[in-house]
Amino acid sequence: MSLRQLEVRQDIYLNKLTSFRIGGKAKLFFVVHSVDDIKLVLSKVSSKFYFLGGGSNLLVSDEDLSTPVITLGKEFDYIKKLDENIIEVGGATPLSKVLNYTIKEKFCGFENFSGVPARIGGLLIMNASSFGRSISEILEEVFVIDRCGNRGVIKKKDISFGYRTSSLKEERSIIINAKFRLVKFDGIRERVYFYLRKRFREQDFDFPSAGCVFKNPKDFSAAYLIEQCGLKGFTYGGAQVSFKHANFIVNRANAKAKDVSGLIEIVKEKVYNKFGIVLEEEIERWEI
Ligand SMILES: Cc1cc2nc3c(=O)[nH]c(=O)nc-3n(C[C@H](O)[C@H](O)[C@H](O)COP(=O)(O)OP(=O)(O)OC[C@H]3O[C@@H](n4cnc5c(N)ncnc54)[C@H](O)[C@@H]3O)c2cc1C
């Protein structure tokens, strides 16, 4: 297969594909429709590429990206029931679709993540966690392609998961699909709505964001430290520390990546000066 048979798009606006609504164009954008496609693209782009999931944890540069961007096509957006308690979910499947499925099938396991605008691959790579549960808790195994193009199944016991990270992320593996073990539960609809309401109450959905910007340092919540510095509502260019959740930076008015970066530096400096704590970023930056 040659590159010409692949879906290669040019000049794709990344601000339309990220929850922050920020970012320049990807000069080269590959939509992969099969495992062979992925292997081929990896052989062409060598190790320098970005991989896009739901775009909900990214701060993308305002400049156009010369680094190629790869994303999974619709073939990887599916849910399959394998047996009584195990489902297989494609890496490109939006979490919202999985939640609707689990309501229909009365499966519990994903409800803590209700409202997170992510896809399955991104949730696993980041080991997303929410309201006391991390996604790795319900995982059985993942099917991946490593950056050299080798494919294979990795059992959960062979993956190390940390706070917003995983060995899969460090190895830059691409998640094709994952199997999850779920439990039947009649009251799942109420549980999903409970967590959805809780998220909308506590987090800022009024303006675009990438969720929490900083990791919680040991013994503290980053939101508490930022709030104690009087930074809620602090604005820099089009970016603002959310009034509702101090660990959210929101795109208040056509913010640029440079506005968010500037605000991040101010927040870090104020928190360091007041508490002597260095905040570490949770969001991922894509530079040119
Ligand atoms: C309103 C809001 C609320 C949020 N709440 C939470 C929360 O409660 N808990 C939490 O943990 N996070 C939360 N987030 C952050 C974000 O949703 C998570 O980090 C999520 O895991 C990112 O998934 P994604 O599909 O959007 O990935 P992206 O943002 O597209 O990418 C994130 C990383 O995953 C990689 N990646 C994506 N898909 C794949 C794949 N198939 N294979 C290999 N690598 C891949 C990317 O290369 C990148 O390194 C929130 C974000 C928003 C906007």
How does this model look, in words?
By secondary structure, the protein is α+β, with helices and mostly antiparallel strands. The chain folds into three domains: 3-74, Uridine Diphospho-n-acetylenolpyruvylglucosamine Reductase, domain 2 (2-Layer Sandwich), CATH 3.30.43; 76-189, Uridine Diphospho-n-acetylenolpyruvylglucosamine Reductase, domain 3, CATH 3.30.465; 204-286, Uridine Diphospho-n-acetylenolpyruvylglucosamine Reductase, domain 1 (Alpha-Beta Complex). It contains seven helices and 21 strands. The strands form seven sheets. Strands 6-7-15-11-12 form a five-stranded antiparallel beta sheet. A hairpin with a 2-residue loop joins strand 13 and strand 14 (165-166). The longest helix has 19 residues, at 257-275. It is globular and about 50 Å long. It starts with 6 loop residues before the first strand and ends with a strand. The structure holds flavin-adenine dinucleotide.
- Mean pLDDT across every amino acid position: 96
Q: Which CATH class of the largest domain applies here?
A: Alpha Beta
Q: Going across the major beta sheet, what is the strand order?
A: 6-7-15-11-12
The share of residues in helices is 25-40%
Briefly say what this structure is:
By secondary structure, this protein is of the alpha+beta class. The chain is built from 7 helices and 21 strands. The chain has 3 domains: 72 residues, Uridine Diphospho-n-acetylenolpyruvylglucosamine Reductase, domain 2 (2-Layer Sandwich); 114 residues, Uridine Diphospho-n-acetylenolpyruvylglucosamine Reductase, domain 3 (2-Layer Sandwich); 83 residues, Alpha-Beta Complex (Uridine Diphospho-n-acetylenolpyruvylglucosamine Reductase, domain 1).
